[in-house]
TrEMBL record:
Alpha-glycerophosphate oxidase C-terminal domain mapped to chain residues: 388-484
Catalytic activity: a quinone + sn-glycerol 3-phosphate = dihydroxyacetone phosphate + a quinol
Any one GO biological process: glycerol-3-phosphate catabolic process
Keyword terms, alphabetized: FAD, Flavoprotein, Oxidoreductase
SUPFAM superfamilies referenced in this protein's UniProt entry, alphabetically: FAD/NAD(P)-binding domain (SSF51905)
Species for this entry: Acinetobacter gerneri DSM 14967 = CIP 107464 = MTCC 9824
GO function terms (MF aspect): glycerol-3-phosphate dehydrogenase (quinone) activity
Protein name: Glycerol-3-phosphate dehydrogenase
Pfam families in UniProt: DAO, DAO_C
Top EC group: oxidoreductase
Amino acid sequence: MRISSADQNKVYDLLVIGGGINGVGIANDAAGRGLSVFLCEKDDFAAHTSSASSKLIHGGLRYLEHKEFRLVREALAEREVLLKKAPHIIRPLRFIMPHQPHLRPAWLIRTGLFFYDYLGKRETLAGSNNVFFDPEKSPLNNEISRGFEYSDCAVDDARLVILNAMQAREKGATLVTRTQCIGAKKDNGIWLVDLQDQQGIYRIQTKALVNATGPWVANFIQDQLAQQPEYGIRLVQGSHIIVEKLYDGDKAFILQNNDGRIVFAIPYLDQYTLIGTTDQEYHADPNQIEITDFEIDYLIRVSNEHFKKQISREDIVHTFSGVRPLCDDESDNPSAVTRDYTLSLSKQETNDPVLLSVFGGKLTTYRKLAESAMHQLHPYFKQMRGSWTKDALLPGAEDLESIAQLIEKIKEKLPEIDELLAQRWAHQYGTRVFEMLRNVHNLTDLGEEIAHQLYEKEIEYLIDFEWAISAQDILWRRTKLGMKFTYSETEDLEQCLIKLHRLRVKEQAA
Ligand SMILES: Cc1cc2nc3c(=O)[nH]c(=O)nc-3n(C[C@H](O)[C@H](O)[C@H](O)COP(=O)(O)OP(=O)(O)OC[C@H]3O[C@@H](n4cnc5c(N)ncnc54)[C@H](O)[C@@H]3O)c2cc1C
């Protein structure tokens, strides 16, 4: 919904453009330090790269080969920090790397794993070890007899974005979706920023502008600000396929390929295996990205070279694709382009307002990236408070003792509830589930069931607290029910959303 005209007249400290993980991370950190913050996202939160990742909070074992020690150290330490901040959406994950001596020698992998174990602070995650596979029980082809095991974490990427957006709002920030920044100009020490939503164009004033537009970062500087970007951006496509699970158990596999790249096979939503990712140079419009035939064949081939269970195109139940907005370091090989982030602060004349642009970055390091952004902005906002996000729990992690206990509490409140639904809610909402279940005393109070245990009450909560507007917002970014919904069930959800939105408008008019 459009903000009030009083808010349009105010001069914000910070206007953040882009509602991916980096934009919401910066908005959240800044709001918690007492700055007045406005964020606009042209589509939905996490609509692009931040929901198309491999969903890992990881140090990036492979980046050690490219000597990215700064990034790996920071990312390794962040695993433990983020695990504590949001244990409902982040879980420890053991990775198995089958040993292929002709690809990487054992001493090299052991050295890498030694660094991995000790480079960053590790408190709860287990260290690495050797593994030997029982040919009877192993899901891997029988010629693979040994390997290595180490720890990283899995995350619900889109929900990490939503939780940061919620926390930013709770700290006083204003965040709007379906609102595109179409231009900004400097005027007497401030930015005049033009935003376009469904109702038309309006203007916001701000002392500093943060360009967190991910794959659009360089184009935004050229087209909307009429300036030259300080750095180039390399767009590198990465895609995943989802198939019915290839093996039992809760461990992931990191598969080496003979082109030097690696592919993950990760247990996904109990029922599936997520296989990805690829690294292909991308030159088209990031809005239109889709998995290519080459990528599908590549992922199927790597999977079949490792697992006993063979797959073909017919086994694919879903695919998704994203572009990594990487800072161009002029590497020849897309896999070797730095995964680290660069922040560019520009202020051409003394009286000019500040522009901070984000190049690159990973989900894993979003919090540290936001802290760096605050550090760079500090000289212009001397009143800003100190860093706070390291120990602050994200929404839903408050009073959360364990997921098992939360599931029991949900069942105490609603004894007739299905176990799988209680599990889904506990992981998605953490303790905020009780906000959703306010005034709910029995299953009837949940309202109409659209399909697959998605009830009206949950949809209302997602509209009121999580900016959900369309069926796609709910099915792919607030939940992962998109894996289950058919075309006609999705239509039913759209109808329900139209009805609920109309009701909201009537209530507001009354
Ligand atoms: C295949 C793949 C796998 C990955 N796997 C991992 C992983 O496992 N772990 C990890 O840590 N990282 C991973 N990453 C990296 C990570 O996903 C990205 O670095 C991160 O999501 C980038 O976030 P962002 O906020 O910079 O960009 P985005 O998420 O793309 O957000 C930018 C937002 O800006 C908005 N925007 C653009 N222009 C405008 C405008 N003019 N006005 C308003 N809004 C605008 C866009 O709509 C978009 O939502 C992976 C990336 C890819 C592609």
